[in-house]
Description:
Helices cover 40% and strands 10% of the residues. The strands form two sheets. Strands 1-3-2 form a three-stranded antiparallel sheet, with helices on one face. It is built from ten helices and six strands, in the order E-H-E-E-E-H-E-E-H-H-H-H-H-H-H-H. The chain is globular, with a radius of gyration of 19 Å. It has helices at residues 11-19, 61-80, 118-129, 139-142, 144-150, 155-179, 195-203, 217-226, 237-241, 268-281, and strands at 2-5, 29-34, 39-43, 49-50, 95-99, 104-108. Its EC number is 2.7.11.1.
Amino acid sequence: MYADITITKGTATSILHHKGLLHPNIIQFREVYRTKSGIYIAMEFASGGPLDKRLEKPLSESVSKSLFRQLVDGMLYCHDQDTFHRGLQIRTCTLLLHGTVYDPLLKIAGFSNADLELQDLKMRQCYKVVSPAAVYTPPEDLLCATLKARGNADQEQLRPLHRASDVWASGVVLYRMLAGHYPFVDPAEPDAVNARLLQRIVKGRYEFPSDRVEVTACCLDLLSRIFQTDPADRITAAEMKDHPWLSGVRLSNEASPSNLLLPSPQTNEDIIQCLRRRRSSTKP
């Protein structure tokens, strides 16, 4: 799989973050190379394509549980490496599938937000509020007071917030897999991104369509612990893995040959030099 990229502030560090991640549930970075037309990233091929292709209708609880457990495993690995995705979504190819339809392996991709500075995050947040990505935005990122308070916070203080943001987004993904639509939407306008949607997110107001979709109480309990409006009260990725709904889940694809982890042959210096050459060649 190849991706053309635009060189922006933080591009190199975001790529290096991705390069250092070796986990079965993370799309593997191969190399960066330069052509006359642009910079390209070569990555592991995900034969199953984007997750959203599987979501034309709600998934069963058992299938959702297997995929979500893999998402949690990959997310926890990232957090243990002090890497925070901050862009988990279904629509933007950040969640891919590999392997067979009956036993898919979930792969997290799209680490372009992994090393954005606070100001960059604020600017992207403004964009999120008026885009479909708003459905993944946690309450704390919609509250101006919280964003303002982050301006004086150091990286150590921000880490729990970044972790909590990824957890919230993963909960939106789980809800979407189970229910067939997104949480917090206004029932009168399910496709609208408007003030009512943002108010429902900030208040943590959502209803699971139990009259149409049957799930266990244990699953609903996990969702309720994810959708805590205060990030300090929100369940962590490590706690999610030990939650009764996910604990003991056996992933048959854990020993699959597709899980062979192959480090990139490029050194960090090779990548940095490649990006520098491209940047200098595009200057007027």
